[in-house]
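Box S1 | Example of a co-folding query
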Amino acid sequence: MKCGHCCTNQKIIVNLTHKDLFRLEREFNLKGKDLLPFIGFYLVEGDYSEEKIVFPPIKTIKGNAYLGLKKTNEGYCIFLEPKSKACLIHENRPQICRTFPFTYNMKNGWLSWGISEAAKDCIGLGKGKKISKKHLEMQGTQTIKELEEFKIIAELWNDYIELKKLSPTPHAFLEFMFNLQNSLISTIA
Ligand code: SF4
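Box S1 (continued) | Returned holo structure for iron/sulfur cluster
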């Protein structure tokens, strides 16, 4: 409904996966470290339970961090045009922006969906066009596939860092992701 409500929510991280980085590549024709101006590394506060987290944190120089879109000083997504509330990268926006406020879960091959806790104050809920079951199934399957792939990639990166095979810098992480693009990712896609 183009309200910009969640795009301006300071508490929401616009989480990214490898696929979202490739979407940004498509949008800007930039890859690897050249995407750094748009990418934030949000440190995980306190202990985290692997069972609870959806997006896996990655190891960085400063600690475990979530990968997300950068925000402005006001806490808005950098791709929100504040006056019109338009998304400046609509065609290539991250998967989480396509699916919010829905969340998806796959258990024993069964897909289920619900509403994100972060959407408690969503002003668009219950408004607009009805979403078909087919659409939810399609979005859910894709979201889970991308997330599962990203979990493998994040684990690989974290192992490399643990073994001191790579330097845990944002620069190195983005280069690592794009170097994988033509090898590992094509085999797990
Ligand atoms: S990428 Fe677009 S839709 Fe997603 S949070 Fe930013 S402005 Fe909103």
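Residues 18-188 form one domain. The pocket of iron/sulfur cluster is lined by residues 7, 14, 69, 77, 79-80, 87, 89, 93-94, 97 (CB under 6 Å).
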